[in-house]
Amino acid sequence: MPRDVQVTFDCADPAAQAAFWAEALGYVLAPPPPGFDTWEAALDAWQVPDDQRNSRSALVDPEGTRPRLFFQRVPEGKTVKNRVHLDVRAAPGLEGADRMAALEAEAERLGALGATRVRRFEPGEEMSGGFLVMQDPEGNEFCLD
């Protein structure tokens, strides 16, 4: 039986990570629970202390087709390379110089949002059409593909 999945990010600042990935992927903040107009109203009603209000955040695809993204605050920082990462499909259907130009343009856009460029793989390298390795603002690796 098929299952839905949610991608969970352990992080230091869930709100900031959610803001970055919303811009990167065209996602939106998950709506507040039924009965509340805003998340602030829900947190007030649940008497969540101010220091706990950035302990988690979630994003959803506005089209409802891609997985939900969940960000949870953890006490430890990132120490090693991710074993699983996202490939952001920034140049589907493009090849050669057009593909790499589209990837570079997306890398520039995401860099302005706090991402860091790690490495460029040229077409044919790693048996691919070319891609860029990036890191989000907290150092999680992802690829522009």
The major beta sheet can be summarized as: 4 strands, mixed
CATH topology of the largest domain: Signal recognition particle alu RNA binding heterodimer, srp9/1
CATH first level of the largest domain = Alpha Beta
Spatial shape: elongated
Structural class: alpha/beta
CATH architecture of the largest domain: 2-Layer Sandwich
Residue share in β-strands: 25-35%
What does this structure look like?
With 145 residues, the protein is α/β, with parallel strands linked by helices. 25% of the residues lie in helices and 26% in strands. A hairpin with a 7-residue loop joins strand 3 and strand 4 (68-73). The model has no long low-confidence stretch (mean pLDDT 94).
Which helices and strands, and how do they pair?
Layout: E1 6-11, H1 14-25, E2 28-29, H2 39-45, E3 56-60, E4 68-73, E5 86-88, H3 96-112, E6 116-121, E7 131-135, E8 141-144
Parallel strand pairs: 1-4, 5-8
Antiparallel strand pairs: 2-3, 3-4, 6-7, 7-8
